[in-house]
Design brief:
alpha+beta; Arc Repressor Mutant, subunit A; 2 domains; two-stranded antiparallel sheet; 9 helices; 5 strands; 12% strand
Length: 213
C-alpha cells in the first residue's frame, strides 16, 4: 500500500505574482476613481504589506503611455489625464473661461517665481500699484493664497501659489516652472525682459487704471 503524497505548497513565486497583480489593479482602480492627484503615501496605505509601490506605478505609467488616458505625476501625486492629442475631440461643450487681465497674469507670474512675496514687493517688481481686485481674482481661481506674514515693519502678508495652481498648469512642483529661455521661446516674454520680470508693463485691459509708482 502506497502512502498518499503530501499536499504540495503553492510556490512562493506564484503568490508574489498574484499579489503584485492584485496590487497593480487596486492602484489602477483608486487612481481612476479619484478626480484629484493621489499621493504615493495614500496609495501605499491601501497596499498589502511587502508590496513595493514605485515599480507598480512605473509599470502602470508605461502601460498607459500610448492609451487614450495617460498616468501623470502632478502636484506631488498621481492622476489619470486624457491624452493631450485627444482632449480637443472629447469636449461635447466648451466652457468659456473668464480671461485674466494682463495685470493678473503678471502678478501670478511674480508670485510663482518669487514666492513668498508681499503685495509691496509685487508692486515694486511691476512698477505699478496692484488693482484691488487683482489678487482677489487669483484667489477666486484657486491659484494663490496668503501664507503668513513677513518679519518686517508692518508685518505684511506674504503670497504663495497653491496646489490648485500646480494641478491646473500640470506641474509636479515649482521646480518644473519654465525658465526664462523657455518663456521667451514660447513667445511669453520679450527678449528684453529681465530676470526679475520687472520690465513687464500692463496693457489696456479694461480694468481700473493702475497708478505708477
Amino acid at each position: 500500500m502506497t502512502e498518499p503524497e503530501p499536499d504540495r505548497p503553492v510556490e512562493a513565486g506564484a503568490e508574489t505574482v498574484a499579489l503584485r497583480s492584485h496590487a497593480g489593479r487596486l492602484i489602477e482602480a483608486v487612481l481612476f476613481a479619484s478626480a484629484r492627484p493621489v499621493t504615493e503615501a495614500d496609495l501605499a496605505l491601501r497596499l498589502p504589506p511587502g508590496v513595493d509601490l514605485v515599480p507598480l506605478l512605473a509599470e502602470l505609467q508605461a502601460a498607459y503611455r500610448f492609451r487614450g488616458v495617460n498616468l501623470l505625476r502632478i502636484a506631488g501625486g498621481w492622476i489619470f489625464r486624457t491624452a493631450p492629442d485627444l482632449a480637443g475631440q472629447l469636449a461635447a461643450e466648451r466652457v468659456e473661461p473668464r480671461k485674466l487681465t494682463r495685470a493678473a497674469v503678471e502678478t501670478l507670474a511674480i508670485v510663482a517665481y518669487h514666492q513668498p512675496v508681499t503685495r509691496g514687493e509685487i508692486e515694486e517688481i511691476r512698477g505699478v500699484t496692484i488693482h484691488r481686485g487683482t489678487l482677489d481674482s487669483l484667489m477666486e481661481a484657486g491659484w494663490v493664497q496668503p501664507k503668513g506674514r513677513k518679519d518686517s515693519p508692518g508685518r505684511p502678508i506674504t503670497w504663495v501659489t497653491t496646489q490648485g495652481f500646480l494641478e491646473h498648469f500640470g506641474l509636479n512642483g515649482l521646480a518644473d516652472l519654465p525658465g526664462l529661455e523657455e518663456l521667451r521661446s514660447a513667445g511669453l516674454l520679450d527678449a528684453r525682459q529681465s530676470v526679475s520680470l520687472g520690465d513687464m508693463t500692463p496693457s489696456d485691459t479694461g480694468e481700473e487704471p493702475e497708478q505708477e509708482l
